[in-house]
Task: inverse folding
């Protein structure tokens, strides 16, 4: 209940949830809503000189550099981005919360060990791991989700750790302790709720960066392989075109918000 | 305090060793063959074999690793495969630029973030709050490339207020730092806003306000310090990330940072450079986190440092 | 009469010293400083090691070689050598060196420098990629194997004469002596630099490296003592690295940059082409390039020649040139149009979807099959790969696209049975020198069809290999036409086996500012990339 209260205090968080719901609907209904096959490179999709078509006519949002309908690609891309965004980020935040709280609360050598392990994971060349995995295994969505989760959880853990350390020393915690409350109770009922805003911040902002991270990974050859669309790789493929074909960038980008 | 420092230093060395080992193994797990790539299209099998032998790549992995660590201990990061120059020279040449951008970028991120977050928190629930937060959101989700190009186009190319690329004077730092600042501000803004709202609702703040203390005073003396902790932690993380290189911003502004060096090395599978850069950024991450951990008790004396 | 003699001899001397063919309307003016930008950092300026297209032109202009090409053409003329003779049996080449040519450290270039430089290029310790080119010289195997440090096949009877002895006639030998790896370097400078010669080059070419701020820029200055009068034309060339191509173009339009070395990114191409200054800014030239799909003859079902032929007929090359905004022309055979030996009358496989489907059915795959198409991940290669994917789907072949980093694609190609199809774009073959044999050996010959090789179609035709060796032993310049005809036939015969789908011959596009002058072919020179010796600033 405390958690819900925290969420409602922030209208931005509510707004965020609403957007997510909208995207969910779009993603599930993609085959129904999409006017064209997202992978079809159409002859009319490019001008005679080979440039993408602007929005209008049969292409509601214009076409991309291969003559494919942008709207259809975005609808189908929503599925991919959603899975990655929610799954990868969700896992990252959960692990990060857990490790951060535990380390911050326990302190001592246990907490220290956990934080040093976090340091190691932070310094870990995740990009390199991604490249190697792509080279050795078949590139897939799950590798992408895994790598993203791996990169993001450490940051959450660090922030949560520092905040927990501050919280632990606060008077009301000490009061609870003196009353004889057990560790579990303190952790879940008193400390966790204060960390929920942080978790939400990270979770929601994280989705946007996750989309872009996924694009970079696709570029390196892991994850979504062409021609499958995802918001990340639509933006990535088109970003140098933003002057010539601004619709390619400005439609997907805000959607990822 | 000193014993803590020593303990952390020893742990840092261990972590660096761990990172080096993992990176080494990963690099050799890559199917791409550096000798093949160096030899190029027209090379005969003998040429490739010769190159492989000269680079020591025909020896077992453990032997190569021991050799590498041996060099590390003496401060020798090896020689680049593609350039044949010492890796230490290559990294050192780009270090000043990277550090400058890092400092300026983090400074602006925190500045923008604190200002935006404070404004939002004080007007919470209102239109200003939502607008400010939405723009912070956009800043974070926007593709770096597009934002950087936009800023360049408007302020450098069209208005001519700043040079379009290069490194050397204060004017050169402004646009890249502002780009990074805008992109990263969102995180700090959200964090500050949450922390401030948390505190603003506390009784003692309401009391202070009821007593007639001005808003600014309340913010500075009671509210901000509460938000500082997570900010410090985030700065620590940022130090590490910036050191890894912000390739996109560097490329757009022609900024001679480590990011571009790393990116090219990865494409060419230039193992010594990749190792060198990974270790350098690992060092920065460890340093950044150490900084955050040491500063936290100073800010909030209630945290007993262990 | 004396005066006329003097005039005539002076004119003759001038003609001999300036092998440039310049437009009558566009006489080069001397002087000027220019700025060139690149995205990638310059790796090295050591001629024995440098092998990427960015440093290729710089190395060409920093050093001199025994022979060189007439600018913009494939004709070999003497350069550092004043004259040369080839023995009738093709096994001995004698060069007489020009006198008075100096390195930038002041010392005169002598015959022993030539011997040292070529030995260095072959010596395993140098780690040079070009060692294999010198394979025809006597003593090559000993030096490559590491049992000696010198090459017995190069003799220097006096300071002005160099004699090469070959173990077999080699029609490409003169081309090999004109390639960057044969550039002449001074031994004392190499040793003094202690491994960093690549960053501290000393040569005898038209330019001298004055300064190198690592990671930022290089400054080249005109060599006042260069042995060709009036070359180079510009006083200073500043190379700025680490610059994103889109921004480089912006700066070019603003006048900060003179040549955008990475060309015009696809995104801006149409905009610039259609702008007012577009015609003068864009230099569009052909290169010795072919982009192709390799079909792995060792992977089922591509081992069936009918399947390979069907694929050849299924690719819509016109559509791909459109995706490239018209910067390429469809290819019909492995050799590009500019390459001697290209057969204009050969039309290859026409685009015919129905015929392709029929052929596939004949081979036993009426419903197609599944396969994998590799490609590099830099734009526009993945897009072209996707276009190919769609073309294949039209005849029932379901191809999964794997867009990976270049190193990984190369590794996959060189591993037996791993890569059924590879789109060569981004790694496509650009000739090392303008000779048809350069397109054969490593990528279509049996020698390349090994682990780690570049013959990604694993195609090995012993008969064609034999004919290739025969063609290459015709080193008599008088028989050039005969040799070219032999090579022509080899390549068109390869098409019958269809180990490749030659897709496009891509042109190179360079952007230059309005003040840069000179004909197009000095900005896109087939052997030099950018000809720094010949470019000039319009005054």
Result:
């Amino acid at each position: 209940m405390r958690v819900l209260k925290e969420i409602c205090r922030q209208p931005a968080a509510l707004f965020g949830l609403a957007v997510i719901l909208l995207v969910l609907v779009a993603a599930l209904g993609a085959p129904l809503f999409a006017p064209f096959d997202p992978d079809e490179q159409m002859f009319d999709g490019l001008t005679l000189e080979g440039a993408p078509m602007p929005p209008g006519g049969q292409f509601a949002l214009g076409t991309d550099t291969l003559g494919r309908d942008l709207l259809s690609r975005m609808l189908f891309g929503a599925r991919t981005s959603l899975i990655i965004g929610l799954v990868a980020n969700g896992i990252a935040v959960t692990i990060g919360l857990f490790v951060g709280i535990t380390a911050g609360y326990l302190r001592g050598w246990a907490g220290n060990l956990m934080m040093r392990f976090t340091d190691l994971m932070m310094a870990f060349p995740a990009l390199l791991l991604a490249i190697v995995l792509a080279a050795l295994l078949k590139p897939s969505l799950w590798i992408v989700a895994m790598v993203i989760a791996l990169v993001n959880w450490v940051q959450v853990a660090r922030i949560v750790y520092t905040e927990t350390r501050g919280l632990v020393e606060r008077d009301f915690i000490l009061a609870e302790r003196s009353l004889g409350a057990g560790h579990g109770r303190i952790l879940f009922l008193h400390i966790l709720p204060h960390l929920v805003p942080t978790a939400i911040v990270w979770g929601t902002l994280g989705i946007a960066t996750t989309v872009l991270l996924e694009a970079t990974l696709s570029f390196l050859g892991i994850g979504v392989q062409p021609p499958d669309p995802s918001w990340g790789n639509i933006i990535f493929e088109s970003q140098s075109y933003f002057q010539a074909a601004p619709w390619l960038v400005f439609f997907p980008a805000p959607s990822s918000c | 305090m000193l014993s803590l420092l020593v303990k952390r230093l020893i742990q840092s060395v261990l972590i660096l060793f761990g990172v080096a080992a993992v990176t080494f193994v990963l690099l050799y797990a890559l199917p791409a063959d550096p000798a093949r790539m160096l030899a190029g299209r027209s090379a005969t099998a003998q040429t490739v074999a010769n190159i492989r032998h000269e680079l020591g790549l025909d020896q077992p992995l453990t032997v190569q690793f021991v050799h590498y660590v041996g060099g590390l201990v003496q401060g020798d990061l090896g020689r680049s495969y593609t350039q044949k120059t010492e890796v230490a020279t290559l990294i050192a040449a780009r270090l000043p630029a990277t550090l400058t951008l890092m400092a300026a970028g983090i400074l602006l991120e925190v500045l923008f973030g604190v200002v935006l977050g404070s404004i939002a928190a004080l007007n919470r629930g209102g239109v200003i709050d939502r607008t400010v937060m939405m723009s912070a959101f956009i800043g974070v989700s926007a593709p770096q490339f597009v934002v950087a190009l936009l800023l360049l186009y408007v302020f450098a190319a069209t208005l001519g207020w700043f040079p379009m690329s290069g490194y050397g004077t204060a004017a050169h730092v402004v646009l890249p730092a502002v780009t990074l600042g805008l992109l990263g501000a969102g995180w700090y803004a959200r964090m500050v806003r949450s922390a401030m709202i948390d505190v603003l609702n506390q009784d003692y703040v309401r009391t202070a306000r009821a007593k007639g203390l001005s808003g600014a005073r309340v913010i500075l003396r009671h509210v901000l310090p509460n938000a500082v902790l997570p900010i410090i932690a985030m700065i620590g993380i940022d130090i590490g990330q910036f050191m890894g290189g912000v390739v996109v911003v560097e490329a757009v502004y022609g900024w001679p940072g480590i990011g571009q060096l790393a990116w090219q090395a990865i494409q060419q599978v230039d193992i010594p450079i990749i190792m060198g850069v990974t270790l350098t950024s690992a060092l920065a991450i460890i340093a950044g986190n150490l900084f955050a951990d040491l500063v936290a008790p100073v800010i909030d004396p209630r945290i007993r440092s262990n | 009469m004396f005066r006329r003699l003097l005039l005539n001899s002076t004119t003759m001397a001038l003609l001999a010293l300036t092998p440039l063919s310049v437009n009558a309307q566009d006489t080069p003016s001397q002087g000027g400083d220019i700025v060139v930008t690149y995205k990638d950092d310059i790796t090295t300026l050591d001629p024995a090691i440098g092998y990427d297209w960015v440093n290729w032109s710089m190395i060409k202009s920093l050093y001199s070689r025994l022979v060189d090409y007439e600018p913009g053409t494939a004709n070999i003329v003497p350069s550092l050598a004043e004259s040369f003779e080839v023995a009738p049996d093709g096994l001995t080449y004698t060069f007489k060196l020009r006198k008075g040519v100096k390195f930038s450290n002041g010392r005169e270039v002598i015959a022993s420098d030539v011997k040292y430089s070529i030995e260095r290029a072959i010596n395993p310790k140098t780690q040079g990629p070009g060692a294999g080119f010198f394979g025809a010289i006597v003593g090559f195997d000993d030096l490559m194997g590491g049992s000696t440090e010198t090459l017995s096949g190069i003799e220097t009877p006096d300071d002005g004469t160099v004699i090469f002895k070959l173990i077999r006639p080699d029609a490409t030998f003169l081309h090999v002596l004109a390639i960057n790896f044969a550039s002449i370097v001074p031994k004392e400078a190499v040793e003094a630099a202690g491994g960093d010669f690549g960053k501290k080059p000393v040569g005898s070419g038209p330019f001298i490296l004055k300064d190198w701020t690592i990671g930022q820029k290089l400054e080249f200055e005109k060599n006042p003592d260069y042995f060709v009068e009036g070359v180079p034309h510009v006083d200073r060339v500043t190379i700025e690295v680490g610059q994103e191509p889109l921004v480089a173009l912006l700066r070019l339009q603003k006048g900060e940059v003179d040549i955008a070395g990475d060309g015009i990114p696809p995104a801006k191409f149409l905009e610039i082409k259609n702008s007012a200054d577009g015609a003068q800014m864009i230099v569009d030239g052909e290169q010795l390039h072919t982009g192709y799909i390799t079909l792995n003859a060792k992977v089922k079902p591509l081992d069936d020649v009918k399947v390979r032929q069907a694929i050849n007929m299924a690719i819509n090359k016109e559509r791909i040139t459109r995706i490239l905004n018209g910067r390429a022309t469809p290819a019909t055979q492995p050799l590009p149009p500019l390459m001697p030996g290209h057969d204009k009358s050969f039309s290859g496989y026409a685009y015919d979807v129905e015929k392709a489907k029929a052929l596939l059915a004949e081979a036993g795959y009426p419903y197609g099959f599944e396969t994998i198409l590799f490609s590099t991940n830099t734009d526009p290669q993945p897009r072209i790969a996707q276009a190919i994917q769609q073309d294949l789907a039209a005849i029932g072949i379901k191809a999964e696209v794997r867009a990976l980093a270049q190193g990984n694609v190369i590794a996959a190609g060189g591993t037996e049975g791993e890569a059924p199809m590879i789109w060569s774009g981004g790694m496509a073959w650009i000739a090392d020198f303008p000779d048809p044999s350069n397109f054969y050996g490593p990528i279509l010959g049996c020698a390349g069809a090994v682990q780690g090789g570049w013959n990604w179609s694993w195609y090995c035709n012993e008969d064609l290999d034999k004919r290739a060796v025969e063609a290459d032993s015709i080193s008599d310049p008088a028989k050039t036409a005969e040799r070219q005809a032999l090579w022509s036939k080899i390549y068109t015969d390869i098409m019958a086996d269809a180990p490749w789908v030659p897709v496009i011959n891509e042109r190179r596009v360079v952007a230059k500012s309005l003040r840069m002058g000179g004909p197009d072919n000095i900005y896109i020179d087939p052997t030099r990339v950018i000809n720094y010796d010949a470019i000039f600033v319009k005054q």
